[in-house]
Each structure stands twice: as structure tokens, then as C-alpha cells.
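S.,

Sequence below, as promised.
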Amino acid sequence: MAHAYDYDLFVIGAGSGGVRASRVAAQLGARVAVAEERYLGGTCVNVGCIPKKLLVYAAEFSEAFADAAGFGWTVGASRFDWNALIANKDAEIARLNGVYERLLSNAGVTIMNGRATLADAHTVKIGSRRVTAKYILIAVGGWPAAPRVAGAELAIDSNQAFHWRAMPQRVVIVGGGYIGVEFAGIFRGLGAQVTLVHRGGLFLRGFDDDLRAALAEEMRKRGIVLRFATEVERIHRSGAGVRATLSEGASIDADLLLLATGRAANTCGLGLETAGVTLDGAGAVVVDRYSRTAAENIFAVGDVTNRRNLTPVAIAEGRAAAETMFGRRAVALDYDHVPSAVFSHPPLATVGPTEAEARARFGAVEIYKSSFRPLKHTLSGRDERTFMKLVVEPNSDRVLGCHMMGADAGEIIQGLAVAIQCGATKERFDATIGIHPTAAEEFVTMREKAAS
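The prediction came back faster than expected:
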């Protein structure tokens, strides 16, 4: 039987969302092709979650060496080799690129290497080739957005940081989002002097205020210089490095200046407007709750829509979009209880609303907090504290939010996210037996309400 289109679904972008949508659509019987102009796996696999976490692991060894003496270990002289770390990281990323290629091929998805653009709502151009599709999915992700600062070309962005040629000894990071905070911990753990400059009064906007303040204190203990309410006005060369002139008049010299001031949807030049797709003021694709754009047959998922820019969310959106297109019903995502983590030093993680968000939505809320020295550091001697917080709606007794800063925060909050998704109450938390001795047990033993 002749088909009206070359493919049932054409996916532009083989990142987390695009790959999941392609595979699910193929499993549902669709003829699928995907185009990728850079690397399979997208931001997460190549210049995001995976390489970042590998660098975080590397940075943690410096503290492990220092802590070992308290447990009776004598650790000899240590030396860090940046080039060895980057080479090993690159080998692992190459392996994952191959995994993604096999996942798509084994699902029967056609892979096209090259930049794809839209000629109209059903036609895609890849170089000199033109193909048609009943549905099109935009999954091109985001890209680092550089601020308008004189001399910005002398700095690097987070993508480049994963491939930098040598370990810097003095690092200035501009930006107070999770990328800037994580790289501050990475470079400091690997031995660099680190200054983080952020124009706001406190970094990590959108996270709970108590959590943000607790992390700032811990980062300062590690020797990271935090300069809040400050902007970089100019960057210029200084010897073999760069010099950043700050809004307060001071200047900082560095071997490396990293601009981590945000990411923007990677929509420029895709021909989206020609196909009837609407963009918002920041260039992100506007979609409805089913990830459908203003063009009825075109969907978009992941960071390009600027909803919740997290890899698991993009994956879930990709699956839902494929099921909406080729399944028996439209599927929308629930964004109310999405957990997230910042792999800072120490890490933090959260699920549910912050205290401020909960008060704005529910009025009166009950707050439970705990700050303590982890058992490990009673012997290591490290001056580090763990912080935990619960936000409870008093009328229903439902736990709305869980927030944590401390070792294994992401692992612990992932489990609690299941309880929050299920609507667990504070009474159910209190009735749960803790595992002793762990930090996680503190979440089921907090009884004293914090003062309003």
C-alpha cells in the first residue's frame, strides 16, 4: 500500500526526548526517522548530566583523601591528572553514543546525520535531501546563552568546559544556576581557586531559601569565594589568562572564566515559523499540555520547550508525545511532583514546592527542619552539616515538599518522591521506621515544628 508520506514520524534531535519518542513510536508501529547534527544522546550524554557527574565523582576524591586519616588510613602523596580524567570521560561518552545508535537501529528507526530544517509543516530538509512526514517532533534541546559582556569571547561556556585543554588553577564562574554551582564544586574539588559571581542576592533561584543558604555556607567552608549581588562588566586578557572587572570596581584574574548564565532553546534557523510553529519571547517552542505546537501535526519536547529542563522530564515527554500520536489516547504529563538535584559539594535535592511556593498556594503551612553533623564527620573532623526540611499542609496533613542538602541527597529524595507522588501524610512519615544509622532516617523522625 502506498504511503502519503515518507515517514509517519520525523524527529529532529536525537537527545533524551527525541530518542525515547522515536523508540516508543516505532514500537507502536510507526515508520520513524531521526536526524541529529551533532552527537547521539544530546546534552545529557555529551555535555550535561553524565560527564558532569563523572567530573563530580573525580572532585570528591580530594575530600576522601583528607577524611581518611580520621579512620586510621595513611594516604600517600596524591596527584591529579586532568588529561587522564577527560580522556576516560570521553571514552565513556563514546561508548554511550554507540549505545544510543544501537537502541535506535534495533527499534527500526532510520538515523540521518546532519542538520534538519522545516520547509513546511510536513517537509524536512537534511542537506540536499527532502523527506515528508505525517508528524514531526522538535527535540533539539538548548544551548549555552552568553551574556552581553564586553570580552565575552575570552570566556568559555559549559559545553567547552568538558573539553578544556588543561586543569586551570584559578577559575571564575559567572552565574548562579545549577551549572555554575556544580562547576564551582568540581573545580574546587580538583584543586583550583574558585570564585563564583552572581548578580542575585543568593544563587539557585527556584530552590527553597533555607536550602540555598545552607549550601552557600558549606561552599564557603570549602574555600569557594561567593560574590553575590555582583556582575562582570568587562573581560580582557591578562598575561596568559583573563581579568574580570566587576560592577563594584574590583577585578579578578583567572586562568579560566566560565560563563554559566543560562541556556536558551536551540530553535534559531530551524524554519519553525514557516511551518506555523509559535515561539515565545525567549525563542522556546510554545506547546499545549500534550506537547503539541500551534501546527497540529508538529510536537516538541524537552529543553526546547523550556518547561522543566530535566532529562527524565524530556524522556517522559517524548514517551507521552509518541503515545499521543500513535497510541489509543492522548497522554499529558504531571509536572507537580518532579524531583530534581544539584550535584554541588555537598549535593542538594528536592521534590515538591518550596516553603515560599507552598505558602503562596496554601496559606498556612507547617515546617519541619533538621540540621546536623553527619556521623561520618565525627571521625573525619570535617566541618560539614546536613540539612533537611519538610513542608506540610496542616488541614490534610499531606507532605507537600521534601528538601535536603547533604551526602546522597539525590538518592534519598528519589525515594521520597514516590511517597510525595502517592500523597503521603506527615502521620505516615512519622509511622515509618527509620534505618539506623543513616541520614535518611531523619525524614521520619522530625517531630518539632519550626517557628513560623
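Residues 397 and 427 are 7 Å apart (CA to CA).

Coffee later?
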